[in-house]
Design a protein that fits this description.
The complex is a heterodimer of chains A (592) and B (240). By secondary structure, chain A is mainly alpha-helical. Among the domains of chain A are: 34-212, no CATH class; 540-592, no CATH class. Chain A has helices at 28-33, 38-68, 78-114, 122-144, 173-201, 214-245, 269-302, 310-323, 339-367, 376-399, 401-407, 411-441, 447-473, 491-524, 583-591; strands spanning 256-257, 260-261. In chain A, a hairpin with a 2-residue loop joins β1 (256-257) and β2. Mean pLDDT of chain A is 92; it is low at 1-9 and 587-592. By secondary structure, chain B is mainly alpha-helical. Chain B has two domains: 1-35, no CATH class; 37-238, Four Helix Bundle (Hemerythrin (Met), subunit A) (Up-down Bundle), CATH 1.20.120. In chain B, a hairpin with a 2-residue loop joins β1 (80-83) and β2 (86-89). The longest helix of chain B has 34 residues, at 162-195. The N and C termini of chain B lie far apart (49 Å). Classes of the chains: A mainly alpha (592), B mainly alpha (240).
Chain lengths: 592, 240
């Protein structure tokens, strides 16, 4: 394989593609609003995602208020509670995490990190954002539609999702939800094609795939997965929309509703579950892989040490991506599918633990004897590792059929997936924002506010989700509006629920500190300079900060080495940028 | 025999043997797929994604067909026509398939003439392809209205499982939409070819980028894909 480190004496290959001609915006509108610059699009994506994410955060507050103090708040009735659950889950998974990692970080970082001027098709990239915004608006519209948003649970299982007993089932809720998802997928495809082609075909000279920062590897693999997984959700949404609007029976069996035989008959609800989870499981890794990639770069940069086992890290990302397409039915052990399927899917699920463990070991080995700077990005990266291992361990319980069956549909499951795909990726998002904010704005985020934000969020997240495992183990089911007088529920559960709710309020409030920091530092933050973290990757080597449209000025950068030359013995500084030639080459080129 | 084109990247980087060499080729400098333009790479990846969409539609249809307890209507009877007193099973579908496959032929010829920079023939062949495509959609509209007249609805039909009508309208409708978009796409590109946009380097209305004759081939990729999908729909829906 091509040596990932600098090859001395290796001739520099000539450019294979001519430098692209960018669209030059003429007006304020085309420069800042309908912009084709990937960096502006990234900020638009991120702002929209965070804004809608705040809505989901408030919804989780309302849910916790009901669970912690049942019956106290009149405005939260059972219908509203299910609507909050559904919208919280859907917004967080799709409209926040997916959009922020791929649309936000993908747009900002891919062109800069691979040394491109922009995405390969800036116009389609712009459309991608506006279609995403439309999807968000359609989603928000369902809050104001008659009957409110759908309350089917974020998995939208039929038949209940389109029946009158479910909030929004016979009103606008489910229609708007499905339409919004379809629109989201169309918009994402436009962006996703851009990210993939830019990584494959748009790199600068010297940037082989095996020299790319792991951030790009993570986002790239996740995007490929998304392009192959979203079709299943698209098809499921179209079919359920037909079931609801045209009276087809794809997912609807013969069913009696309110004592009345419905027109439906002969459909298969399990078919929906298969389609949904064929999307849904890869979706977990669509969110996790960018986080894996970003956290690798954060750890390496802030521990001043090359990432341990770079090549293994790349292959682990690719293998996790591939395996995640053949594990989906581990979400369906209790669905009534053939038990032999359970055996197969449990096996593949546990096999995924191998590449994932390789990644965790490599992160820890990168830290080992590193020069660890406990900067904010590093704190969040460490929090990610701990949280991810925690969530992964409970995954072992849920991946095995016999253990999963009694735990299924309990709060244990809620605690598990919030640790592994809620808290862990969010930690990386925070770390990444603290890390790249200086490049995006030219100013550092405030350190004190950041510390407050970190410690409250980190400790608070554990205060919320650790007790929730116990609550689940003693048998409290998820998605219950209230526990009522159920005899099996221990008294400790009630006090823990109140505790969890209070912590959830505090952690949520801490995010306001973060948002304030984002706005405050725009003007009052310390000047960052071009490369405040003394990092090697290309985005820190731009001639201007923040990088202008076109990123690189006149000349595209040329890459001579991998992204992890930290603390190289004998080097004058403890980092060597990717675009710095090795000493041998300099003299060679000067002579010629 | 002409000398093989030298790939500059292949000379500069040492290539290990075996699987490691394969990986190194894929990971090589600047471009993974040498001599593949951005537009073509994007179309291929889009088609891969679209394959998953159609694959899911067809698998869902097959699952629904196998799960239903009511008999499935016999396609060769449902899709039969009486022409001149003769009962011809699947005759319309046969003609539609023939038209669509022929359009792939004219498309391939258009691509060939496009690379020869023969504006007139390229545009004419693309228009012919679009005409075939429009004919296909027209016959599909005829087929739909005939079935609707016979009482087939998305929620039921006179002969058996309700999923027959719903799958039929959904899958052929989705494919027909693809063909329609293809026809529109063909007409737009044919107009550009006819006007000589790719010789005069006229900039695109939306993207402000210069087009190249390669767009004919990219349009062709999409068109052939839509044809290929039809073959699968034909096999799994009409022949099963």
């Amino acid at each position: 394989m091509v040596d990932v480190r600098s090859g001395i004496g290796e001739a520099l290959p000539p450019p294979e593609v001519e430098d692209v001609e960018l669209y030059h915006p003429h007006s304020w509108w085309t420069r800042y609003v309908f912009s084709q610059d990937a960096k502006i699009i990234a900020i638009q994506y991120a702002t929209t995602a965070i804004a809608i994410g705040m809505v989901a955060l408030v919804l989780s507050w309302l849910m916790r208020l009901q669970l912690g103090f049942p019956g106290t708040f009149q405005l939260i009735d059972a219908e509203a509670y299910y609507q909050f659950i559904t919208m919280h889950g859907m917004i967080m998974v799709i409209y926040l995490l997916t959009a922020l990692f791929l649309g936000g970080f993908g747009n900002y970082l891919i062109p800069l990190m691979v040394g491109a001027r922009d995405m390969v098709f800036p116009y389609a990239n712009m459309l991608s954002y506006w279609i995403y915004l439309l999807a968000v608006l359609v989603l928000v519209a369902s809050f104001f539609a008659p009957g409110g948003p759908t309350g089917a649970g974020w998995t939208l299982y039929p038949p209940q999702a389109v029946l009158s007993g479910t909030p929004g089932g016979k009103d606008w809720g489910i229609i708007l939800m499905l339409s919004s998802l379809i629109i989201f997928i169309i918009g994402f495809t436009m962006g996703g094609l851009n990210y993939v082609v830019t990584v494959l075909q748009g790199r600068t000279r010297g940037m082989t795939l095996m020299r790319m920062p792991l951030t790009v590897w993570g986002i790239f693999t996740a995007t490929v997965m998304a392009l192959l997984a979203f079709p299943a959700l698209f098809v499921a949404c179209v079919m359920m929309l037909f079931d609801r609007l045209l009276g087809t029976s794809f997912f609807m069996p013969a069913i009696v509703e309110m004592g009345e035989q419905l027109q439906h008959g002969g459909g298969s609800p399990i078919l929906f579950q298969h389609l949904f989870w064929f999307f849904g499981h890869p979706e977990v890794y669509i969110v996790a892989l960018p986080a894996f990639g970003i956290v690798s770069d954060l750890i390496s940069t802030h521990a001043r040490k090359n990432i341990f086992g770079y090549r293994m890290m790349v292959w682990a990302i690719v293998i996790i991506g591939g395996l995640s397409f053949i594990v989906w039915a581990h979400h369906m052990y209790v669905s009534g599918m053939n038990p032999y399927f359970g055996f197969f899917f449990a096996t593949t699920t546990l096999i995924i633990a191998v590449p994932t463990a390789i990644k965790v070991y490599n992160w820890v080995l990168t830290l080992w004897r590193g020069n660890i700077h406990l900067t904010l990005p590093m704190l969040f990266a460490l929090a990610f590792i701990v949280t991810f291992v925690n969530g992964g361990l409970t995954g072992l319980f849920l991946g095995n059929v016999v253990v999963d069956v009694p735990l299924s549909d309990t709060m244990f499951v809620v605690a598990h997936f919030h640790m592994v795909m809620g808290v862990a990726p969010i930690m990386v998002i925070f770390g990444a924002i603290y890390h790249w904010y200086p490049k995006i704005t030219g100013r550092m985020l405030n350190e004190v506010l950041g510390q407050i934000h970190f410690w409250v969020t980190f400790i608070g997240a554990y205060a919320i989700f650790f007790p929730m495992h116990y609550v689940g183990l003693v048998g409290v089911p998820r998605r219950y509006y209230e526990l009522g007088e159920m005899a099996f529920v221990a008294d400790s559960v009630h006090s823990l629920n109140a505790f969890i709710s209070v912590m959830a309020l505090i952690v949520g409030a801490a995010q306001i500190v973060f948002l304030f920091n984002l706005v405050w530092s725009l003007r009052h933050g310390r000047e960052a300079g071009g490369n405040p973290w003394r990092a090697t990757t290309l985005e820190w080597q731009t001639p201007e900060t923040p990088p202008p449209h076109g990123n690189w000025g006149k000349e595209l950068p040329v890459v001579y080495r991998w992204a992890y030359d930290y603390s190289v013995p004998g080097a004058p500084e403890d980092f060597i940028p990717q675009n710095q030639p090795s000493p041998g080459r300099v003299s060679h080129e000067a002579a010629s | 025999m002409s000398a093989p084109i030298k790939n500059p990247a292949a000379e500069t980087l040492p290539r290990p043997p075996g699987l490691a060499g394969l990986a190194a080729d894929w990971a090589s400098d600047q471009r993974t797929f040498k001599n593949v333009s951005w537009g073509k790479a994007m179309m291929w990846i889009f088609l891969l994604s679209d394959t998953f969409v159609f694959g899911c539609f067809l698998l869902a249809y097959m699952a629904a067909r196998m799960a239903t307890t009511v008999p499935w209507p016999n396609p060769s009877e449902v899709f039969a026509l009486e022409i001149g007193g003769t009962h011809l099973p699947l005759i319309l579908i046969a003609i539609m398939t023939f038209v669509l496959i022929s359009s792939s032929g004219t498309m391939a010829m258009a691509v060939n003439y496009g690379y020869r920079r023969d504006r007139r023939k390229t545009a004419a062949l693309m228009l012919l392809t679009a005409l075939f495509g429009a004919t296909f959609v027209g016959m599909q509209a005829f087929e739909w209205s005939k079935l609707i007249a016979e009482g087939v609805r998305p929620w039921g039909n006179p002969w058996g499982a309700a999923q027959f009508g719903s799958s039929f309208f959904m899958i052929t409708g989705f494919h027909g939409t693809h063909v329609t978009f293809g026809v529109i796409f063909l007409l737009i590109v044919a107009r550009k070819v006819w006007r000589g946009d790719f010789d005069t380097e006229r900039r695109g209305f939306f993207t402000s980028r210069k087009g190249r004759y390669e767009i004919v081939e990219i349009t062709g990729l999409y068109w052939h894909f839509v044809d290929l999908v039809w073959v699968f729909i034909f096999a799994f829906f009409y022949l099963w």
